[in-house]
Amino acid sequence: MIIISQADITNIRTEAIVSPTNGLFINNKGASYSIVKAAGKEVENEIKEYKAKHSSLKEGDFYKTSGGKLIRNAVKTIYHAVINMTPNGNASVYSINSSMNKILNAAVESKLKSITFTGLGTGCCCLDKKIIATNMMDNAKKYCGLLTINIVDLDKQTIEAFNESLYKD
Q: What is the rounded radius of gyration, in angstroms, for the C-alpha atoms of the chain?
C-alpha cells in the first residue's frame, strides 16, 4: 500500500523514517534537520559515532540510527539516505533511486511493516518535483505489497506531483 499525504514527517505513525542527508553527515537544513532535531540528542550522538567510524559515504548509500524520541510515533529506525555529498551539493535522480532501493530492501529484510519518505531532493536540492515523484513512485510500487509506504511532505506541490504519479498508468 502507498499512502500520500501533506504532513510533517516527524508526526507520522510509522516504523521507519527516511531522512535525506549528505555524505558529510551534516543535517543542518530541510527535512534532515527537522527529523534529527525531533529525534533528539540520542540520534545526534549515533550520527556522531557513525561518522567517527566512517569518514564519509557515497551518494546512493544510507546509514541507520534508532528513532530516538520519535519512538513516541512508533519510529524504531531512521534511515539516512545520502542523496548528495555536501550540504549545498547537487543531488541526482540516480543517488535518490539508489538510496531508496537499498533502504526499501533493508526495510523488507528487517520485516518492517511501514516506512515513510519525504520528496527526496525536492527541498534544499531543488530537484524537479515531478521527475522525483515519478522515480520514487516507480520504486515504491515494486515494494507496495511488502510494506506500507508513506510519502509525506509539507509542500503542497510536491504532494500533488506524487498523487499525479501514483495515478498515472
A: 14
pLDDT band at 2 (very low <50, low <70, confident <90, very high): very high
The alpha carbon torsion through 148, 152, 157, 160 (nearest 10 deg) reads: 20
Chain centroid, CA 165 distance in Å: 18
CATH 3.90.1150.10 assigned to domain 2-166? The reply is no
Helix (H) or strand (E) holding 48: helix 41-53
For the chain, the average pLDDT equals: 85
| Predicted pLDDT of residue 144 | 87
Residue found under cell 540520542? 42
**Interval 101-108 mean pLDDT:** 96
**Where exactly are the structural domains of the chain?**
2-166
> 77-84 and 62-66: which strand pairing?
antiparallel
Measuring CA to CA, which residue among 128, 134, 74 is closest to residue 100? 134
pLDDT tens figures, 12-33:
999 999 998 865 556 555 677 8
DSSP SS3 for 3: strand
Q: Could you give the 3-state DSSP secondary structure of residue 64?
A: strand
